[in-house]
Amino acid sequence: MGDQDLSDALAGQGYQLTGRHSAVKLCYWTRESLVHGRDCYKGRFYGIQSHRCLQMSPAIDSCNLHCRFCWRNQGWENDEMMPEYDDPETLLERSIDAQRRILSGFKGEASVEEGRWREAQTPRHIAISLTGEPTLYPKMNRFLELCAERDITTFLVTNGTNPDALRALDPLPTQLYISVTAPNAEVFRRLTLPSDPHAWDRLLESLAILRDLPTRRVVRHTLVKGWNLGWTDEYAELDLLARPTFIEPKGYVYMGKSRQRLGRDHVPSHGEIGAFASAIARRTGYRVLDESPDSKVFLLGESESGRYLPGLAPAAADAVT
């Protein structure tokens, strides 16, 4: 796929391109928060304000995995560190501008409070995920630094196969996620289709690094029925290797391009995710702290301590799913 074809395909899926390899896309929950006052599970679990959350990627065409459950197009990615890259100052400004363009259509809607719309013009949270592997962006440190200067919290999601990038993070994001989507090397190979034969070993290395990083650390298990749901003893061993602040078992969602690779029968129920979470809790000593049925996700932690971001009160229970 050529550059123009890729740009056209991404634009058709609602991405706002912000550079040569960067993009913003409106999160479903940002819209829900603006229109219906319903925050995503990160609001319930950690206290973020979904209407002020910006979802972006500095690596839309860079990834070394080809996960079957991924919602994005595949087959055109680069899997190495970018030789040329967007300037981080420009990237942040363009990302905020793109979010404002997206949100402009909500101004004046009867269901949107003007005060919340105005708040949304100044993001307080940036989810660095969306698509691609963000640690392949070589100026991540400067981007995180710029966000911190603006009091913007950062949620960085990585597949964990780039341990050197984790060692180099300075400053650290507010919350660092590693996606652990397989209990062992064989399931990992079949489900994530890595381009690097050493990717599983690199993931294990990253989990050991995660354990000692002085920030909020999360291991997320995206669980696909019939593929990687089960093996709770092996998952628990990985969780104990990382000793994260929180563990998030989350059900696969049948959406985007994943529908070309998986079927509806691969979507687990909330109850199945709950049974998995309880088994992990028994094996690790973590506690089940909360759950969000609409997102099919549970929160595990050793205690409630440090659960909510500084300065953010927990979202009202009746406004969250």
Describe the protein in words:
By secondary structure, the protein is of the alpha/beta class. The protein has one domain (14-75, 105-319): TIM Barrel (Alpha-Beta Barrel), CATH 3.20.20.70. Helices cover 34% and strands 15% of the residues. It is built from 11 helices and 10 strands. It has helices at 3-12, 28-36, 41-46, 88-103, 114-120, 140-149, 163-168, 185-192, 199-210, 232-242, 270-284, and strands at residues 16-17, 23-24, 53-57, 125-128, 153-158, 175-179, 216-223, 246-251, 287-292, 297-301. A 10-stranded mixed sheet has the order 1-2-3-4-5-6-7-8-10-9, with helices on both faces. A hairpin with a 5-residue loop joins strand 1 and strand 2. Helix 4 (88-103) crosses helix 6 and helix 10 (232-242) packs across helix 11. The protein is globular. The protein starts with a helix and ends in a 20-residue tail after the last strand. Mean pLDDT is 91; it is low at 315-321.
